[in-house]
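Morning. Coffee machine broken again, so started the prediction first thing and wrote up yesterday's gels while waiting. Chain of 192 residues, entered below exactly as on the submission form.
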Amino acid sequence: MTALAAVALLAGCGVGSAPEPPGPGWERGAVPELRGTGVLLLPVQGQVGVAGDLDAELAHALREAGSTVRWIAGSELDSVAERAGALGGDPRNLPVAAFEMGEVERVGDPLFGTLYRLAGLTEAGYAVLPVTARGETADETGLASVRLNVALLDPRTGRVLWQSIIQGDPGAADTPAPAALVAERLAGRLLP
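Came back before lunch.
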């Protein structure tokens, strides 16, 4: 068999091609019991086509659903990172590209180091990392939805405990409704 024929055969079998990114409903791992713990709620790392303040919607929905969880988010998280200086890292600009391709078992540095230090400063046992949020195109009804790629990590080990692609219910396009609906769906999944 010639080298060219072997390459053609391998290409036809899908060998060597990149796997398709996961779609809505994809999930791996399990969500541990979060009640009674401190949890870092990191900012959404990348957003495209999402109206409103998704970080605020996530914080609100999770606090409403899990009042016994000590959520460290928003200005509190910013303040902790600022006090830590260069050691704290920038929680709004984390290296998360590996999560876009699917399963991640464990994160390494520099992401691990940033999560480890922030968790140590806040005594958080877990970290919720919203990787990306994408607004889905509105249809003729004027409704749109948000697709969220999110992971739950143990910041002391870097282990990814759970990761999912969550599709929010449709809401009025160009309003905060789609962001609020995906936030509620995430809250229902993390705190059933």
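Residues 1-14 have pLDDT under 50 and may be disordered. Going to sketch it on the whiteboard this afternoon.
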